[in-house]
């Protein structure tokens, strides 16, 4: 950690130039020759990225930022706060602490939080920043987290272990299976359960749920977290020797609310019902789409599916739905005559679900401009007919 960048003049310069083009700044002469220009530029770039993602860090004086990659890879404050709301206790150890955003929020729900980070420089940065953020119950340990686990009293057990395995393997490049991540959680599970009975594992949102379940044991809950309808995190919550039902819990964090939906994996429920488009159309948020609980949506909300593979829903009466809701103005068949009459040279937002053509090809073929207040869903109905739903969004 280079503490020289904490100089008052340099900090003022960084604050003043946050958001300024780095290409433009890089061509300027370094006004602080005692510090490498690239270090100052990195602070400006990282702080710029933190403005929306990490507003608490952005608003706090004398924060030191690591590389922009570390800032890009860290949890946002909104997802970290939601994640921390899921668990609580006396003690938690984070085996892959990173920039410490998750631990900042865990420290609000635990008496003691241990932040482990193998990169000594990053560990020192986080320790400094926790002081600036007035976090007093989070302790930083540099080095291999396995050593930190072993250094505790033999009879001591953590209430929770949290781990976000690195999805970049030196030998394999970017990976998604847990066994290929670092550390190898499936291989180390028995060791971890010697130190705790409860583990929360964060994985890439691209990881297939069944693949994660095939690598892990004692899974109780799978949390799927989306931010503004973009899937961000999968969390596998496991408890030693647990053998009960597995619950899928989804959350889509929006500006003014959190949309939630959950169901028990493999549980018996009413079969979904199918119908032709009615008055309203519903598109599940990305967390639900990731969950694969498409039949459960129909059963739980008592609404009809358009087709087994379309994952769009319809009803005659409007319901409060975790996703986007639309009023259907018109339903047309996907053929030359109706397309020319209704949508040729028009402006519309296009979505395809269970449809043989792409959005790009549809726009090109029918000269449909992007944007506007019209929403068109190109899909397949329960009778396997290709249709277009022309809708208005309900806000």
On the 0 to 100 scale, the average pLDDT is: 94
- Helix fraction bin: 25-40%
Strand order of the largest sheet: 3-2-1-4-7-9-8-10-11
Biggest pleated-sheet summary: 9 strands, mixed
Look at the helices and sheets and give the structural class: alpha/beta
Catalogue the unreliable spans: none
Shape: globular
- How far is the N terminus from the C terminus? 48 Å
- Radius of gyration over C-alpha positions, nearest whole angstrom: 25 Å
Proportion in β-strands: 25-35%
The counted number of beta strands is 19
Contiguous helical run count: 15
Give an overview in words.
The chain has 395 residues and is an alpha/beta fold. Helix 1 (8-17) crosses helix 3 (37-53). It has 15 helices and 19 strands. 31% of the residues lie in helices and 28% in strands. Strands 3-2-1-4-7-9-8-10-11 form a nine-stranded mixed sheet, sandwiched between helices. An eight-stranded mixed sheet has the order 12-14-15-13-16-19-18-17.
């Amino acid at each position: 950690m280079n503490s020289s960048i904490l100089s008052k003049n340099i900090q003022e310069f960084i604050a003043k130039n946050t958001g300024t083009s780095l290409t433009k700044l890089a061509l300027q002469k370094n006004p602080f020759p005692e510090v490498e220009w690239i270090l100052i530029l990195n602070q400006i770039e990282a702080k710029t990225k933190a403005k929306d993602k990490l507003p608490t860090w952005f608003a706090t004086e004398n924060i030191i930022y690591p590389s922009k990659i570390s800032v890009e890879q860290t949890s946002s404050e909104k997802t970290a706060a939601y994640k921390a709301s899921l668990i609580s206790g006396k003690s938690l150890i984070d085996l892959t602490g990173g920039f410490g955003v998750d631990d900042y929020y865990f420290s609000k729900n635990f008496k003691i939080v241990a932040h482990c980070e193998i990169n000594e420089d990053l560990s020192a940065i986080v320790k400094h920043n926790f002081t600036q953020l007035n976090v007093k119950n989070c302790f930083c340990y540099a080095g291999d987290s396995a050593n930190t686990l072993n250094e505790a009293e033999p009879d001591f057990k953590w209430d929770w272990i949290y781990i976000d395995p690195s999805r970049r393997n030196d030998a394999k490049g970017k990976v998604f299976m847990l066994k290929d991540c670092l550390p190898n959680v499936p291989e180390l599970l028995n060791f971890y359960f010697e130190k705790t009975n409860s583990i929360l594992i964060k994985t890439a949102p691209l990881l297939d749920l069944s693949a994660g379940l095939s690598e892990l044991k004692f899974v109780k809950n799978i949390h799927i977290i989306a931010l503004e309808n973009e899937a961000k995190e999968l969390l596998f919550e496991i408890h030693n020797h647990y053998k009960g039902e597995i619950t899928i819990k989804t959350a889509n964090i929006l500006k003014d609310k959190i949309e939630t939906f959950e169901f028990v994996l493999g549980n018996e429920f009413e079969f979904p019902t199918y119908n032709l488009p009615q008055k309203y159309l519903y598109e599940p948020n990305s967390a639900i789409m990731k969950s694969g609980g498409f039949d459960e949506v129909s059963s739980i909300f008592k609404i009809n599916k358009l087709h087994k593979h379309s994952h769009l829903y319809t009803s005659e009466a409007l319901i409060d739905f975790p996703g986007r809701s639309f009023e259907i103005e018109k339903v047309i068949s996907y053929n030359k005559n109706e397309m020319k009459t209704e949508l040729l040279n028009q402006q519309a937002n296009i979505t395809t679900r269970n449809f043989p053509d792409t959005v790009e090809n549809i726009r090109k073929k029918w000269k449909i401009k992007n944007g506007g207040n019209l929403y068109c869903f190109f899909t397949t109905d329960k009778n396997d007919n290709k249709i277009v739903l022309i809708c208005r969004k309900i806000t």
